[in-house]
TrEMBL record:
It comes from Brevibacterium marinum. PANTHER family: HTH MERR-TYPE DOMAIN-CONTAINING PROTEIN, REDOX-CYCLING DRUG-SENSING TRANSCRIPTIONAL ACTIVATOR SOXR. InterPro entries: DNA-bd_dom_put_sf, MerR-type_HTH_dom, MerR_fam. GO terms for molecular function: DNA binding; DNA-binding transcription factor activity. Keywords: DNA-binding. Gene3D superfamilies: 1.10.1660.10. This is DNA-binding transcriptional MerR regulator. The keyword Isomerase does not apply. The lineage of its organism: Bacteria, Bacillati, Actinomycetota, Actinomycetes, Micrococcales. The keyword DNA-binding applies. It comes from the Bacteria.
Amino acid sequence: MAKLTGTTVNTIRHYHKLDLLAEPERMSNGYKQYGASHLLRLLQILRMRELGIQLSDIGSVENDHEQQQIALKHLDSELGERIAQLQKVREEVALLLEHGAPIDTASGFTDIATAMTASDRGLMSLYSRLYDESTMSEMKSIMSEASPYDHEVSELPEDADEETRSRLAEKIAPDMKDQLESQPWLLAPSHRMTGDRKMGQNAIISLIGELYNDAQIDVMQRAFIQIFASLDIPDEHRERFIAFIKEAEREEAARQRRTVGRSAGDSDAT
């Protein structure tokens, strides 16, 4: 019967265990004697599985026309969603091929990926998991306006001298000011996160430390210090940023206390 229906012996045994397919009587030699009723029932089960009906639902819909219609409508809705998702994925793949973008490029950034630095692409990949489409659209607008100095910062070696750091900070400060005045929520980015804000914030801080070297981070910090006081933004964003910094300082102080405590404990144990 397995060969006839294109399935396996183990599958038939599984249907027996689930009480979806009745066990046939055994002949005098011990072999199971499957009949036409078993074959018909197995074909019914396989047909419902082909359509995508779950095994757990088969028993409740097999002889109930109304339940079958409900199950089919639910299945049709699921298939529509799945097809739409597959179509979206196919469009993403086509864009990756068209623009020659790296495969890990965040959705929606494919057409500008080759103009972005590897570090920025990595950061946007994380951002795409933390923010909604509207916010990511704003981030794309920012990434689309990269200046020559952004690439110079991305290539800055960790041992860059003081003069180079100071010069680059001066160069990127105006663009940073424009960006923060047009998107002031960037001052406290966790405010717009869709999931666990603390976890997302820690992930961003950790990834920035991984993607950018100390000299690059230093240049960005210098530029920010230059422009913060003169930012033309609503007070609520400035206050949110100050609260964000204070919270980060408290967490860092607590982390250091825990580290010192562990070190002291290790010394005592030694």
